[in-house]
Amino acid sequence: MWLQLALMRIVVPILIGSILYWQVYILHYFEDMQAGWIGATVMLIPVLIIFEIDRRVTRYFQRQVEHTGGFWQAILVPFLISLLISLLVVFAMYIPGKLWEIKNGARDTIGLFHVVSIGSEVFFMVIIANAIHQLRFLIKKWQEEAIRSANLEKENVQAKLATLTQQISPHFLFNNFNTLYGLIEQHPKGAKEYLMKLSSLYRNVLLKRNEELIPLSEEIDTLRDYIFLIKVRFGSDIQVKINLGEAAATYYIPPMSLQMLVENAIKHNRFDEDHPLLINIEQCGDQLKVENHNSLGTEQQTPSHGIGLENIRNRYQLLADRPIIINQDKYNFSVKIPLLQIVENVA
After folding, report:
1. Taking residues 309-327, what's their average pLDDT?
2. What region, left, alpha or beta, does residue 306 occupy, with left being phi > 0 and alpha being psi -120 to 50 degrees?
3. Which of 290, 291, 286, 262 is closest to 338 using CA atoms?
4. Does the structure show a pLDDT above 50 at 35?
5. What's this model's pTM, rounded to 2 decimal places?
6. Tell me: the pLDDT tens digits for 196-242?
7. What's the rounded Cα separation, in Å, for the pair 294 and 76?
8. What is the pLDDT of residues 120-166, one digit of tens each?
9. Given this structure, which CATH class describes domain 211-338?
10. In a 3-state reduction of DSSP, which class is residue 245?
11. Phi and psi for 251 in degrees, rounded to 5?
12. How many Å apart are CA 273 and CA 284, to the nearest integer?
């Protein structure tokens, strides 16, 4: 921070003032080298003052623009005020000094040429100073706007993800309580075990519901618990096979994605003991394929609330802007979901 301030307030004005002085010095045919160095030092002082005047004036009007707006107020007005103040200050320094030189025997006068020459130099100095300060202001505003937009986008994504996550748990409970209701009448002992597993599974759901992504291995563990619940009711009518690659431990997916896909397969297919529903979960590179095969075809009469697949699709769009791929025919239905990796920024 202090380096930037030193650069803007001291180094740049000195550099520009030095260039201006040597230009004037060359035009005067290298007269009096000692007087030249003195003149350079004397000339740098007004340049530093001009830059500081313009910085303060420009900064004041930039703060006003944040509240009222207006192009002319942001650029033209501060430039004209900086120019007026700079001319008054420079001439207030130049005229007494020149009068003192004439009083002490210098053969010089304060004529129109001197006034126009100094005024033009001040004019160009104010243009340069104002351009630098306006550019710095624009860059700062652009950076602030970029940060603000990024924060707003992040908050928006988090809000949408929270809304989508809120849909999962009621959907999860609704379907499994229906299953539990059927077990209570048909298999009371199985209902007790089912309830214990359901409580354990729902505890995991609550712990992970605020997570945007979880390791694939954790999602698989939760899925195995869910498969146990399915087996309690359906037995061998449903068969689930899981096949993952060696690199599976490095990938992440949105929580409850696999459970919702398996639940979707059960919900929309017909199956029985002679025609079981085959669900295959297989890693294909950086994708996970969930495919179900059913020789009886899909169940057309089962109502759908559109929560499962749409929920997963929306979460992937928000998190990675990567689509899920769906393929379907009469007896097969497959969904490919992206496997994501978290890249940590190294400072």
Report:
1. 85
2. left
3. 286
4. no
5. 0.53
6. 888 878 787 777 777 888 899 989 988 888 888 888 778 888 999 99
7. 75
8. 878 888 888 888 878 888 788 888 888 877 766 766 566 565 655 55
9. alpha beta
10. coil
11. -105, 160
12. 30
For residue 298, what is the DSSP state? B
CA distances from 69 to 74, 75, 208, 222 (A): 7, 11, 46, 55
Name the E strands within 160-310.
214-215, 238-243, 252-253, 277-284, 287-293
**Residue of 7, 36, 34, 35 whose CA lies nearest to 23:** 36
3-class state of residue 37 by DSSP: helix
DSSP per-residue letters across 255-290:
TTHHHHHHHHHHHTB---SSSPEEEEEEEETTEEEE
Domain boundaries, the chain: 2-148, 211-338
Spacing of C-alpha 184 from chain mean position? 50
pLDDT tens, residue by residue, 251-294:
999 888 898 898 888 888 888 888 889 999 999 888 999 999 87
Phi, psi of 326 (to 5 degrees): -115, 130
Helix (H) or strand (E) holding 326: strand 325-328
| Maximum Cα–Cα distance across the chain | 121
